[in-house]
Amino acid sequence: RTVYVNGLYLPEEEAKVSVFDRGFLMADGVYEVTSVLGGKLIDFAGHARRLARSLAELEMKNPLTEDELLAIHRELVARNDLVDGMIYLQITRGATDRDFLFPENAEPTVVLFTQSKPGLADNPTAKVGIKVISIPDIRWGRRDIKTVQLLYPSMGKMMARKAGADDAWMVEDGEVTEGTSNNAYIVKGGKIITRHLGNEILHGITRSAVLRFAREAQMEVEERPFTVDEAKAADEAFITSASAFVMPVVQIDGVSLGAGTPGPVALRLREIYLDEMRKAAV
Ligand code: PMP
């Protein structure tokens, strides 16, 4: 595999990052994941915009223009013959002597790599749906910034696996915030309910597109928090993320939703999302 590190395209074995990198020492960095379908990037502009915002919120300089970033993404797709999969991008504040204060003159570390996932859009899991458990949301208060601090979400996925489930929905003050790596939705009486934007959740790029398509298709959308009990009583549920697209949820804490199979709203939105995004892919 060819990866990108600070301006160079290198075989993965030759790519190096300093042990003093603040991403490694302090999780002082941000990331993005963009899906690739048929060799093209899904919603690249959305990811580039959110990256710029994450960097700005952390007072980190943006080392690349959107055009440069797009060129690197495309070059990696080409060099790795990537058809279906994803591109991971990470920018950290760089390498300096260890210090809690932000360094004045560190150069950001930019890393990108590809991961091939043949048949990504035909994921058979979408036909059966996933099971989630609920866990307390004990993450920090700026979840709108896409930082590389993924330890708790990682622990959440492990808790889900140990409980025989696929993922965890995190709960704060009795309300669902989001999934470990995705935004969470329920459907009741045809209405799609998902938490409003704020510092409590990541502003999903897929969320934004899916809500737009839902409204265009005259589906009713309500952006507000919901509780786990409300979710358990819902007709259906689903999650969205750049790599899962729209994925039905069929069970919450062992309680089956509706018929216990993927719901019509989730399946329809998945189809619309994939159709529209493939058409707009770059
Ligand atoms: N919330 C969290 C916590 C996430 O990690 C992700 C995926 N990175 C999402 C939501 C979904 O965001 P997107 O649709 O941009 O992938």
TrEMBL record:
Give the catalytic activity.
L-isoleucine + 2-oxoglutarate = (S)-3-methyl-2-oxopentanoate + L-glutamate; L-leucine + 2-oxoglutarate = 4-methyl-2-oxopentanoate + L-glutamate; L-valine + 2-oxoglutarate = 3-methyl-2-oxobutanoate + L-glutamate
The record's keywords, sorted A to Z, are: Amino-acid biosynthesis, Aminotransferase, Branched-chain amino acid biosynthesis, Pyridoxal phosphate, Transferase
Q: In which pathway does it act?
A: Amino-acid biosynthesis; L-isoleucine biosynthesis; L-isoleucine from 2-oxobutanoate: step 4/4; Amino-acid biosynthesis; L-leucine biosynthesis; L-leucine from 3-methyl-2-oxobutanoate: step 4/4; Amino-acid biosynthesis; L-valine biosynthesis; L-valine from pyruvate: step 4/4
Q: Which PROSITE patterns match?
A: AA_TRANSFER_CLASS_4
What start-end ranges are recorded for coiled-coil regions in this protein?
none
Cofactor(s) listed in the protein's UniProt record: pyridoxal 5'-phosphate
Q: What EC number(s) would the UniProt record show?
A: 2.6.1.42
The molecular function terms in GO held by this entry are: D-alanine-2-oxoglutarate aminotransferase activity
What InterPro entries does the entry give?
A: Aminotrans_IV, Aminotrans_IV_CS, Aminotransferase-like, BCAT-like_C, BCAT-like_N, Class-IV_PLP-Dep_Aminotrnsfr
Give the family, as the similarity comment puts it.
Belongs to the class-IV pyridoxal-phosphate-dependent aminotransferase family.
Any idea what job this protein has? Acts on leucine, isoleucine and valine.
Instruction: Supply the name of the protein.
Output: Probable branched-chain-amino-acid aminotransferase
The source organism is Plastorhodobacter daqingensis
**Lineage of the native species?**
Bacteria, Pseudomonadati, Pseudomonadota, Alphaproteobacteria, Rhodobacterales
